[in-house]
Amino acid sequence: MKFGGTSVATLPRWQNIRELVASRRAEGARVLVVVSALTGITDALKQMCAQEDKGKRVEAARAIAQRHYDLLDHMQLAVPATLAERLSELAMLAEDGPGAMGELAWAALVQAHGELMSSALGAAFLSHAGLPTEWLDARDCLAAVALPNQNERTKLLSAMVEARPDPALNARLAELGEVFITQGFIAREAQGRTVLLGRGGSDTSASYFGALLKAQRVEIWTDVAGMFTANPRQVPGARLLQRLDYEEAQEIASTGAKVLHPRCLSPLREPRVPMLIKDTNRPELEGTVIGPEVREHAPSVKAISARKGITLVSMESVGMWQQVGFLADVFAQFKQHGLSVDLIGSAETNVTVSLDPTENLLDSDAIAALASDLAKVCRVKVIAPCAAITLVGRGMRSMLHTLSGVLAEFGQIRVHLISQSSNNLNLTFVVDENVVDDLLPHLHELLIAAGALRTDDSALFGPSWQALYGSGEVAAPAASWWRTAERERLLRLGAERTPRYVYHLPTVRQQARELKSLGAVDRLHYAVKANTHPAILKALAEEGFGFECVSPGELKAVLAAVPESAPLLFTPNFAPRADYEWALTTRATISLDALYQLENWGELFRGREIVLRVDLGRGLGHHEKVRTGGSGSKFGLPVELVDSFLRLADAHGVIVRGLHAHLGSGILDEGHWGEVYGQLASLAERIGSVAFLDIGGGLGVPSHPGEARLDIAALDRVLRSVKAAYPHYQLWMEPGRYLVADAGVLLARVTQQKGKGSWRYLGVDTGMNSLIRPALYEAWHEIVNLTRLDEPATGLFQVVGPICESGDVLGTDRRLPEAQEGDVVLVAQAGAYGKVMSSPYNMRDEAEEVILD
Ligand code: LLP
């Protein structure tokens, strides 16, 4: 168990350590505690070393001693002999100065006293507090090894230890006792001199000891519960990583995470000793376990990190294509200047590399000197300041297909270099430094939304930093009616018959009321294509909604279910003339979205007021198939044709009363509707006859755990601010999904299971015939075994249906309990675009619909 400087600096912290050690003892474990120096002491010792004046050195040593006396006082303990010895040795070192020992060896020995003293003090405290504790000199156990290219400084101040399991040490300790305390940061080299371990020192010591003793585990106790999916200071929604393998953890540590120094993991790899990171103040939190690779996890991006202060050096070979030895020539210069290269991109005539400031002393002189030497062999360009954004995850290259949405984000900015690590663990983008702070939280969100960062796998991903340490304002969990109050009823319904869609009307009403709180919106229409069940249509009519329909069938369904007073919109696309003719016999307001309709059927619309649907040139949404803007999509009249449309309208006595735009479905950015609103309003100013603007639907509902919900109050603020500029237009909206998605679930029953290699398939009695969204859009729906909701989810399954298509998959890589034939499985968020998109394919029974009210 390793404790850092702040964890050993006060009495309460030591009491805490005592409790933690005692709890491990209670589990039957023998404990070795590794400690750092009290906070501030290492710095004080360094300052003492830099002091030429003997008097001042002696004075500094006295002040350092006093810190330890004060803490002992507080503990009501006498000065233990081990500590007294250290203190007098330190006083002597201060008195004597480096002398014959040499500056560096003396400095190492002086600084080692921080840990020697804190551990001596700790041994006294723990023994006094009822845990007899043996003080162990780490230098007797950790032998520093000589490495090639080591100078005196690195040998003494940044040493390395080769730690192999040492049964003799184990046996020796077994005779001595049950609890031990030793020092982090220090070791001894072949000549017997004390050496320091350099950066990451105490954690690395803990790992060395873990390896030497082949410990059950190494616990790093610190001020945070572990490693996160991103730096929580930049991304408060970053999730705790509960399980990592050594390589992943090392990669995350190397690319920016500060919790661990990357070098402290390698000693544990070979002896396969797991490391656990824990929060000293919140020991109940799970923490991060780092261990050997575990195969049965869903492939996932584990973290996104950013390193700033990166310098890129681009080297162009001058006119010598594929010149032999070019790389050797340029890299020789980096060696010469003592600079270590991080990322590399290469072409026939160009090599671009990055220099990381954490590995290099990068000042402008060092770079200038390098550049001038490089200029002798090539044309040099230095690009700085840059930042490296890295996605980390085992098997990165097999996840590329999940990253399209994330990569699209890089379309807006300059990317200087892309590099994928040859160990297949990371993918790095080097961009300008100034874009990183805004970009990172956004990328993190996109990774979750794209299902690339599999936050649904609760074995891997824990709570967000915000939930653990923030103000407690966490987005409300998605509708959970089926998890709690209605679970029993759903089990009965599922046992009776499957497949079945079940809709929860209170949730529909709740969503409707939330949208009605949008004060800026004058009229809400429900886009009935999402779900045409009559009970839902009735409930929304009662809430005062109008209805948006796209076919005569939808219009008829609505007319049959809702009162005469409910406003209707008819917004078809590429519909036949007869549809318009029929719709004109109803009270629906009709929208046109092409020149064709007026050019060819103009007389139909003579004297009518219509809505013009325009294409604002771009689409948005959860998948490219639901984006309805731009020339790649068939919807709307391009803005440049609006004048032609107006001339045609004039010619046929048609009045453009409304403007309409709908850019896509599943949008989670509140700003989007403000932009559409503003664009439609300024277009309306040109037209004159317009009275209302319909900014479409598309309000998204987060599907992946950890994705943020739309902030309806924020949306209202966005809309109000546009309305303030254009108060003379009514504002209309037409959401579908938002109202019904969470209100519906699909129930199915387990039919059979199959294993294939490392893959496990869980079959249920319906699939893409009932719910096509996963097959069509790779949409993510939460899937649970409702029969075994409380059982631990131990297996990783592909949840598939009985349809003869490889695409018949309802969910990939789902962590679920072991299932039995007949178990009721629930597919969540199936209230929107579920039943309405189902088909009789393979002549399988259609899912029945049940209403809960
Ligand atoms: N208005 C118009 C003109 C639309 O075309 C749509 C949806 C909506 C409103 C409602 O969009 P919502 O609020 O539901 O996102 N089947 C896809 C969604 C396709 C949406 C088609 N149009 C899915 O399951 O995600």
TrEMBL record:
The modification N6-(pyridoxal phosphate)lysine is found at K529. SUPFAM superfamilies: ACT-like, Alanine racemase C-terminal domain-like, Carbamate kinase-like, PLP-binding barrel. Gene3D superfamilies: 3.30.70.260, Acetylglutamate kinase-like, Alanine racemase, Aspartokinase, catalytic domain, Lyase, Ornithine Decarboxylase, Chain A, domain 1. Its cofactor is pyridoxal 5'-phosphate. One of its GO terms (biological process) is lysine biosynthetic process via diaminopimelate. It comes from the Bacteria. GO terms for molecular function: aspartate kinase activity; ATP binding; diaminopimelate decarboxylase activity. The active site is at C804. Keywords: Amino-acid biosynthesis, ATP-binding, Decarboxylase, Kinase, Lyase, Nucleotide-binding, Pyridoxal phosphate, Transferase. Its EC number is 4.1.1.20. InterPro entries: AceGlu_kinase-like_sf (IPR036393), ACT-like_dom_sf (IPR045865), ACT_dom (IPR002912), Ala_racemase/Decarboxylase_C (IPR009006), Asp/Glu/Uridylate_kinase (IPR001048), Asp_kinase (IPR001341), AsparK_Bifunc_asparK/hSer_DH (IPR042199), DAP_dec_asp_kin (IPR011246). Residues 315-388 form the ACT domain. It is an enzyme of class 4 (lyase). PROSITE patterns: ACT, ODR_DC_2_1, ODR_DC_2_2. Pfam families: AA_kinase, Orn_Arg_deC_N. Pathway: Amino-acid biosynthesis; L-methionine biosynthesis via de novo pathway; L-homoserine from L-aspartate: step 1/3; Amino-acid biosynthesis; L-threonine biosynthesis; L-threonine from L-aspartate: step 1/5; Amino-acid biosynthesis; L-lysine biosynthesis via DAP pathway; (S)-tetrahydrodipicolinate from L-aspartate: step 1/4. This is Diaminopimelate decarboxylase.
